[in-house]
């Protein structure tokens, strides 16, 4: 087992591949010293003589730069309104451990007087996410922040007419405010309390590229898409204009040639992550994902077609314009008995907040629907659940919605909701329908999409 000690350099743009290469650059040497000093300052370890018979864990340097989507080193300051990112220094996250653990001295940084000594750990080299979150939560609440009703990693604070929002993801914090001064004060407060570093304006996070413009914000995954195509050797493929043919009906295809299961699953997993900003491929990817247990050539061909479509559209993303009216709308639909294997239907839906798409879904229903009306009603139920979730989340931002229209293009499903006749649906779905129907009737208004009837 190897303990990894991460060091971050914010000046040198090339990440070293070996300790010798790192030691030849003063910036990386300074970063390594800073990391070791953090361990000493936070009393993470103590240098001792190696006990007889003790098992010692090896250590290894891992060099990594915080970069943006263009590979530039992330270093920034707060200037203007927008979203910003901070991250906490790793040594601060260490918590006390009860076990007796010994690790080797970091390579090339051995104590000259005691080169054969080892470090006895008082705290973990790696962070404990729960303990870090609990301390951060208590600190923010003490400073007047409110924790999210639905998302407990969301913290908000209202001051007069200004709103401050803070989102925590492990050791990264994304924050923004309608008041620029509040952002500066927050950055200084966090850096002082938690030894955090300011990365700057949010432009790249977890594979997502973010462009913050005067007219709005654009979120996309072009770099991730191109890396995905390159990883699966599809970067030179012939582009195509649709992710899947309209008449595509995949089945088990037991007589087809088996393909490498690990490759197929890796492709599906990568594409599912891309669906977070690409609703246009969600149905196609979810359909192909049903055959991961025993993929065949026909399934792989369908996945490769999606990749060819991504080759044609690598920069498609989500646009969130400023100044849009905060009106929540829901749309639901279903693909009746579209699954050729189990004859189950697929629920589909999307939700728009003003002119912005904020949620979408494509999910195979739990059991076989006996009619199109039942399939449509089950799809509407799924969309209603999401509406209730969005409404609760919006309360943290000071947005309260009373009635939310949910558009459905099936007259029978609308009639059953209006008359309360949904109890005639499949017994296996009845419990889920009943549990959401009360909230469904009181919180959302099911209306017929006149444009589709």
From TrEMBL:
Mark the transmembrane ranges.
Answer: none
UniProt-listed SUPFAM superfamilies: DNA/RNA polymerases
**InterPro entries attached to this UniProt entry:** DNA/RNA_pol_sf (IPR043502), RVT_2 (IPR013103)
**Which domain of life, per UniProt?**
Eukaryota
What are the top taxonomic ranks of the organism? Eukaryota, Viridiplantae, Streptophyta, Embryophyta, Tracheophyta
Entry protein name: Reverse transcriptase Ty1/copia-type domain-containing protein
Q: Which residues form the Reverse transcriptase Ty1/copia-type domain?
A: 82-245
